[in-house]
Design goal:
By secondary structure, the chain is mainly beta. Helices cover 9% and strands 50% of the residues. The strands form two sheets. A nine-stranded mixed β-barrel has the order 2-3-5-6-7-8-9-13-15.
């Protein structure tokens, strides 16, 4: 566990990515409407699959994945968050450094800089087997360690009508959203974190899937 490190030199970066977001709130997530978390605190996982991306002029990030596990004791805007970061073990050293700078917010810009402003304690980014299965509101992100142990998993499934059992389609649009302007809503089939620093397990809670372009600084 470490306090946030000082920011490094910032290079320009840009990613076009799929974003899976999941937390312990009820469907829809009150945070999307500037309200307090459903249960007072927030615990969640975010997964990212980079369709195309670059850091500076030489480092390409196409096809790589990364994940964030985070926890806040109260409303996110009050800060005091903790986080762990995981980078695709297929990344070479330059790609690992680039993705580490982006996801921790040290590179500036995107939603990551906002997260960094409300996170006080972190585990420095680590390489892991980060898999992202892209299936819209059935997408899944998993993080596994060297022994294939599950470090984190977030698995979306459709929200179901309680009477008919049919999939219930819902979309949130936020024209000025810093994470995404349009998010397909889902439920959580599984939401698990167990990395020795943060630990939780939920099902049937909030999930969303979106496609975004972010850049910085």
């Amino acid at each position: 566990m470490k306090p946030k490190a000082q920011q490094q030199e910032k290079l320009s970066w840009k990613v076009h990515a799929y974003f899976l977001d999941a937390c312990n709130c009820d469907w829809g997530c009150p945070c999307q409407f500037n309200a307090n978390p459903t249960h007072g605190n927030c615990e969640g996982i975010a997964g990212y699959h980079i369709i195309t991306g670059s850091y500076g002029t030489k480092v390409k990030l196409d096809g790589l994945n990364m994940a964030l596990i985070a926890s806040w004791p109260g409303p996110l805007h009050e800060g005091r968050g903790k986080a762990s970061y995981y980078i695709d073990n297929r990344a070479d050293e330059k790609q690992f450094e680039a993705l580490s700078n982006i996801i921790t917010g040290r590179a500036g810009g995107g939603p990551f800089a906002v997260y960094a402003s409300i996170i006080e304690e972190i585990q420095e980014p680590k390489k892991a087997s980060v898999k992202f299965q892209t299936k819209d509101i059935r997408s899944r992100v998993s993080v596994r360690g060297e022994q294939s142990n599950v470090i984190a998993e977030a698995w979306l499934e459709p929200i179901r009508n309680p009477v008919t059992g049919k999939a219930h389609r819902a979309v949130i649009e936020i024209p000025e959203g810093f994470e995404s302007t349009r998010m397909d809503q889902a439920s959580m089939k599984a939401l698990v974190a167990n990395d020795g620093y943060l630990s939780f397990r939920y099902e049937g809670t909030y999930g969303s899937f979106s496609e975004n372009t972010w850049k910085g600084p």
